[in-house]
Design a protein that fits this description.
Layout (H helix, E strand, L loop, with lengths): L1 H9 L15 H24 L6 H18 L1 H15 L10
């Protein structure tokens, strides 16, 4: 009995080989994938061809205008800007602080 077990344990094990499973609707999935890729390409080309609604220079101008309104309406902002202006007035033309 020990011999039989030893012979069984020393045998090499080869799992049964079967062909890989093949999907029956792989053609349909491939067609659907191609349809999605084509739609994405069309959408991307439309997005790239559109001109921007916003102008950076106009945005910056409006931002500065709104900052002026905020400065005029806020006491603490005015005080902070006044102290910044004083510190900037102490600098010479080259940007070095004068003592």
């Amino acid at each position: 009995m020990v011999k039989t077990i030893a012979r069984t344990m020393s045998r090499s094990f080869e799992p049964p080989t079967k062909p890989p499973a093949i999907s029956l609707d792989s053609g349909r999935r491939h067609v659907e994938f191609e349809r999605i890729v084509t739609g994405n390409r069309k959408l991307l080309s439309r997005i790239r061809s559109v001109k921007s609604e916003y102008s950076v220079s106009r945005f910056n101008t409006e931002y500065l205008k709104n900052q002026k309104y905020a400065l005029n309406s806020s006491f603490s902002l005015r005080k902070r800007c006044e102290s910044l202006m004083k510190s900037q007035s102490r600098r010479d033309v080259r940007g070095h602080q004068q003592y």
